[in-house]
Design a protein that fits this description.
single chain, about 500 residues, alpha/beta, Aspartate Aminotransferase, domain 2, Aspartate Aminotransferase, domain 1, 3 domains, three-stranded antiparallel β-sheet, about 10% strand, globular, disordered N terminus, binds pyridoxal-5'-phosphate, PyrdxlP-dep_Trfase_small
Length: about 500
């Protein structure tokens, strides 16, 4: 029986262990010698401490010791305090928090997929390689590109990968332009990736339509520009109608066009970045093709490129070898690995399952309904919470609470907190930055007309409260396990360690 990590006593018996305000940490629940067992079926023979020798840490790890019963109860209590895509509508604009079907999880959990080590020789995992090759082909078909790496573990990682490919391409052509153009409506990861890749980010303004200003673009374009990063539909939920002209101007100065495909959910089967003229595209599989987005991952941000850029892709890629079997292959001028092994493989398996299940027609319908739902909600809310740009939206739209701030001191965050009391997740607030008091609403295709109507009624009621009894909104949320948090304090002075001194009672 282990005695490591024990914290005798833990919490005093007289203190309540259960309660909305007082969930103990696993360390506080810890009692020396308690453990939760699982059935082991490892094929690897047990090794003695002597054999493992120098690789073993000798001092005990400061881990809590909790019985299975207490552990399950602890996490069930924590989970019941949370809000999730499985619980209800999650109109968090830009994040595409749609319901993710369970069959994708079932596929990803198959032992033949989940139980395989990434170093297994190719001949023993032909099925896995076929799955990845099929997924790559599907991504290329959907985006209209020639080849793709599945390795980047998130959208932002895809951006960095794409920018490194862009740089490698320019250098191979004997140039090294250092500026990347980004519209002012772009997601914050775009300028961050540009900086991380060692480039200078140059902002181009949006015009009165909420679209890239062609005049401003002409102003900043010259041969010092390596490329543009464009999100389409953009983060206002609007389709960049001048995309052909934008790309013509960009290509004219020898720059490349990068498509931030995080909003792909709006256009699958309807429009393709490759057909629009883009050179590099990342897509967030975790937003569009199963696996919920959020909480920092895990995700998958594959990067697809034109045939002119294939040689720079990170390896390894599954390609047929001399025997006809699939083998791992690294392109000749590869920028190198951007993640260990083959990326977040089980997120890729979920995406593959989702695509196979829906097929081309189903995927197109997914995007059509995503746009339909957003347009319906936009129209339904128009009289009370009008969109910042009076255009039919794509998969999301941005409203503004500016009017309520000047009338009654009610801010976008107050309306968002109020929505929690109606049993919905809040929309995104204060993004994109170019809309004052922004409320960014993305209902997604998985919500029913009844849910959309309930959501609309909740917003209507919140607007009514903002007009009549605004002080009430400052109190929201009153029904959640925690009320308003010190978000700035949490970001600036995060407490990231167990505060009670976890190791103080170790053997
Ligand atoms: C437009 C846009 N670009 C990039 C990203 C970054 O994706 P990730 O969070 O997977 O890094 C997001 C995230 O939702 C996004 O909405």
């Amino acid at each position: 029986m282990s005695t490591r990590g024990a914290r005798p006593g833990g919490r005093a018996a007289s203190a309540p262990l259960v309660g909305r305000d007082a969930e103990p940490t696993a360390f506080e629940l810890s009692v020396r010698g308690r453990r939760a067992d699982t059935l082991r079926h490892s094929a690897i023979p047990e090794a003695s401490l002597e054999e493992l020798g120098p690789w073993l840490r000798r001092e005990p790890a400061a881990l809590p010791e909790v019985s299975e019963r207490d552990l399950v109860a602890h996490y069930t209590r924590l989970a019941s305090r949370n809000y999730s895509v499985d619980l209800g509508a999650y109109p968090l604009g830009s994040c595409t928090m749609k319901y993710n079907p369970k069959f994708a999880d079932e596929v990803a959990a198959l032992p033949g997929l989940a139980g395989v080590h990434p170093d297994t020789p190719e001949r023993a995992v032909q099925g896995w390689l076929e799955l990845l090759a099929e997924l790559e082909a599907a991504i290329c078909e959907i985006t209209g590109m020639a080849a793709a790496t599945l390795q980047p573990p998130a959208g932002a990682a895809g951006e960095l990968t794409g920018l490194l490919i862009m740089g490698a391409y320019h250098r191979a052509s004997g140039r090294d332009p250092r500026r990347i153009i980004i519209p002012d409506s772009a997601h914050g990861t775009n300028p961050a990736s540009v900086t991380l890749a060692g480039y200078e980010a140059v902002t181009v303004r949006s015009d009165a339509r909420g679209l890239v200003s062609l005049d401003d673009l002409r102003r900043v374009l010259d041969d010092s520009v390596a490329g543009i990063m464009l999100t389409n539909p953009n983060t206002l939920g609007l389709f960049e109608r001048d995309v052909a002209e934008i790309l013509r101007l960009v290509h004219e100065v020898g720059a490349l066009a990068y498509y931030d495909g995080a909003n792909l959910n709006a256009i699958v089967g309807v429009a393709r970045p490759g057909d629009m003229g883009f050179d590099i595209v990342h897509s967030n599989l975790h937003k569009t093709f199963a696996t919920p987005h959020g909480g920092g991952g895990p995700g998958a941000g594959p990067v697809a490129v034109t045939s002119a850029l294939e040689a720079f892709l990170p390896g390894p890629l599954p390609r047929p070898g001399a025997t006809g079997q699939l083998e791992w292959w690294t392109p000749p001028s590869s920028i190198g690995n951007v993640h260990a092994f083959h990326g977040n493989a089980l997120v890729l398996a979920r995406a593959w399952a989702f695509m196979r299940y829906h097929g081309p027609d189903g995927l197109r319908r997914m995007s059509e309904v995503a746009v339909l739902n957003a347009r319906w909600l936009q129209q339904r809310l128009q009289p009370v919470l009008p969109a910042a740009f009076d255009e039919p939206c794509m998969h999301e739209f941005v409203a503004s609470a500016k009017e309520f701030r000047s009338e009654a001191g009610v801010r976008a965050s107050d309306i968002a907190k109020g929505l929690l009391e109606f049993g919905f997740h809040a929309p995104t607030v204060y993004f994109p930055l170019i809309v004052d008091e922004a409320l960014m609403i993305e209902p997604t295709e998985t919500e029913s007309p009844e849910t959309l109507e309930a959501l609309a009624q909740a917003f209507e009621r919140l607007v009514e409260i903002a007009r009549t009894t605004p002080a009430e909104l400052a109190e929201a949320p009153r029904t959640t396990p925690v009320r308003r948090l010190d978000e700035v304090g949490a970001a600036r002075k995060p407490v990231l360690v167990e505060p009670v001194g976890a190791a103080d009672e170790l053997d």
